[in-house]
Design brief:
Helix content: 40-55%
Shape: globular
Structural class: alpha/beta
Order of helices and strands: HHEHHEEHHHEHEHEEHEHHEEE
CATH topology of the largest domain: Rossmann fold
Length: about 325
């Protein structure tokens, strides 16, 4: 347990010491949930539930994550408040009838979430398959990403523009925490479902912008930007943001299309840029204070009809504060 002031501990215990709020904590121990999902499980009105959530948030026992018109809640990833909640939840009888009813309803809610994700994926599957056919096999690109990142272990891994959360799943076993942000609510629904299926308990996603992320300075040991830059008006801003978030000695991994001439990707898939050149990357990295390493290139499978993919790694120029070879968040 992390020591806290006595008065603060009393506030936290008061926040947890009410049946609905205790049920909320027990539910959030199984992953983040929206207000609507909590209301559905607890069979309570959202206004009433919001008062309980405000009490728990004020005590620091849960975190509030706005996502457009929705709001998600989760337990803190670490710290004294998380240790206290874990201790309290571990003391609860797992056969408690009310808790069992809540967990049964939670399974139904998560099932509905997975169904919604599946329906979205079904609508876009054909387009995704056609896009994937334009470039090299994902499995080989992922091997290159892992090689560029190094063996870890990592503290916090952040994925800008996480999409379906694949990078989070890839690094979940190598890090204390993996977190992703994305501007697409539909993709976040897909990512939550896939992370749940993968059993990645140390992974979470939230609504956020790659050029203005919600992370503190020097907080991540690894930042990933996978197939995102071609959507941005100013891709260099994402590298500046990654450099801000990276801890001393941390690294950035960028996966991006090489320059190409497939104009239909602008009109049909909202690509702002037709690939990223090595000169582009060098210029953006220099502005951000990052040192770029040589890129690994995967040739286009369809010749002129396909797209080459490049995998870059770049190191933070901040002076390391830990022992050589070890990456850790500040």
């Amino acid at each position: 347990m992390h020591p806290v002031a006595l008065a603060h501990l009393v506030t936290q215990l008061r926040a947890a010491g009410e049946i609905t709020r205790a049920r909320i904590l027990a539910l959030l121990a199984h992953g983040e949930l929206s207000v609507g999902e909590l209301a559905q499980v607890l069979n309570q009105s959202q206004p009433r539930l919001s008062r309980h959530l405000k009490f728990l948030t004020g005590a620091g026992l849960i975190e509030r994550l706005p996502e457009g018109a929705w709001v998600f809640y989760r337990l803190p990833a670490e710290g004294g408040a998380r240790a206290l909640v874990d201790t309290l939840i571990a003391s609860v009888d797992t056969h408690d009838p009310e808790l069992k009813r809540d967990l049964d309803r939670l399974r139904d809610v998560k099932g509905e979430r997975a169904e919604a994700a599946g329906q979205y994926f079904a609508r876009v599957a054909d387009e995704w398959d056609r896009l994937r056919a334009l470039h090299y096999a994902e499995a080989d690109i992922e091997k290159a990403v892992l090689a560029a990142a190094g063996p870890g272990p990592f503290d916090l891994v952040v994925d800008f523009g996480t999409g379906t959360g694949r990078m989070l799943t890839l690094f979940a076993g190598m890090a204390r925490r993996v977190e992703g942000i994305d501007l697409s609510h539909q993709m976040l629904t897909v990512a939550r479902s896939k992370l749940q299926d993968a059993g990645a308990a140390n992974a979470s996603v939230r609504h956020g912008d790659a050029t203005a992320s919600p992370y503190a300075d020097s907080s991540a040991s690894l930042v990933i930007i996978h197939q995102v830059l071609h959507f941005l008006d100013d891709p260099g801003r994402a590298l500046v943001e990654a450099a801000r978030v990276l801890a001393p000695g941390g690294s950035l991994i960028v996966v991006e299309f090489a320059p190409h001439t497939l104009e239909h990707l602008r009109t049909e898939h909202a690509h702002r840029h037709l690939g990223v050149s090595e000169a582009d990357m060098a210029r953006w990295a220099d502005r951000a204070g990052l040192t770029v390493k040589a890129a690994k290139t995967f040739g286009a499978p369809g010749g002129e009809k396909g797209i080459s993919v490049m995998v870059w790694s770049a190191d933070s120029q901040k002076a390391p504060q830990s022992s050589p070879g070890k990456r850790s968040a500040a």
